[in-house]
Design a protein that fits this description.
Nucleoside Triphosphate Pyrophosphohydrolase; eight-stranded mixed sheet
Length: about 150
């Protein structure tokens, strides 16, 4: 399968070739477990790596609206299934392979279900206890976000 090219919608900014890109990085939880997804081999960024849910902040939607949009698109989660959204201070990290600096907006999201419907961006998912993150290889930025929200596991 070929990579799906990004086609901006009206009012959307295309950050695919930009040096700096604002993104949300969501750590999704349910009943004390953390969701990790294995990114599709067809993903433009970090294929075959474990990750949280992320997306470009590329339009005029609020952070909360973007979180719900990404959860809906990537996981099939309805807005009514989002229990809580918590944010943390923005930070930057280098995506060396992509010559990009990610301007990360960390978000902790609690949802009311563990039943998900993945879109093309991920091949599989797992619900893991926080103490098991050390057993996986993640894309850059994930562990920083994990440590922000789960500092006792440092």
């Amino acid at each position: 399968m070929d990579k799906i090219p990004f086609v901006p919608k009206p009012g959307q900014i295309d950050y695919t070739t930009a040096r700096y890109a604002p993104v949300i990085n969501c750590l999704v939880t349910h009943r004390g477990k953390i969701l990790i997804v294995k990114r599709s081999k067809d993903s433009e960024y970090y294929p075959d790596r474990w990750a949280g849910i992320s997306g470009f902040l590329d339009d005029a939607k609020t952070l909360g609206e973007k979180v719900k949009e990404e959860l809906s698109e990537e996981l099939g989660i309805k807005s009514s299934q989002v229990v809580r959204i918590k944010t943390a201070p923005v930070f930057e990290y280098e995506g060396r392979n992509y010559k990009k600096v990610w301007i990360a907006h960390p978000v902790l999201v609690e949802i009311s279900t563990d039943k998900l419907t993945l879109d093309w961006e991920a091949e599989e998912y797992k619900w893991i206890p926080p103490g098991e993150v050390k057993n996986f290889t993640f894309g850059p930025g994930f562990m920083t976000i994990f440590k922000i929200f789960f500092s006792k596991y440092q």
